[in-house]
């Protein structure tokens, strides 16, 4: 049987430790497989959301990080990601629709949390919100303030460690990246947007180190 990743995993010769999958026709087969899994067991309607979980179990120990970049609309693959992932980073386009779009996604997130609990899957951590496309317009300023209030409300409601990352400023060079096949750090490292992304990465790594220290401390306390 052919490995489910054989046709969709690519290796960048310039970055040998970076393996990636792009949206392509090959991934359409994953959605079909998910639907077929549900038909095979009508009494378990959630099987179609667990195909990615089963597939990644075969390779997840080979990687330090597995990062999913899903589209705004949540299709079957998006739901598979939400059932498999352990932590969420939500990029938010600052616009008049900011409050509405974030509220809708939080509703989806809460439903996923309930289902994961019912299925015996560990909780999905709501870790970070990353504001993007921030410019000098009144709309961006007001939507950022709305986002700050929403983050505070979510923290008060139980997402105590949810972090609002430094906003990414609007810049035309960001749109050039796909055509160059490069990162913002390689294409325009001195750009303010690159520095903002750098701050976000630093925050994530800092938090991970803190979490690891706490885990080590708890293990030490258990052994004593």
Verbal overview:
It is a single chain. With 224 residues, the chain is mainly alpha-helical. Among the domains are: 1-85, no CATH class; 172-224. Helices cover 50% and strands 12% of the residues. The chain is built from eight helices and five strands, in the order ββαααβαβαβααα. It has helices at 25-40, 51-56, 76-84, 98-118, 138-156, 177-180, 184-187, 192-223, and strands at residues 10-12, 15-20, 87-93, 125-132, 163-164. The protein has a three-stranded parallel β-sheet, covered by helices on one side. It has a two-stranded antiparallel ribbon with strand order 1-2.
Largest sheet: 3 strands, parallel
Low-confidence stretches: none
Mean of the pLDDT scores?
83
- According to DSSP, the number of beta strands is 5
Global structural class = mainly alpha
Number of contiguous helices: 8
> Compute the gyration radius: what is it?
19 Å
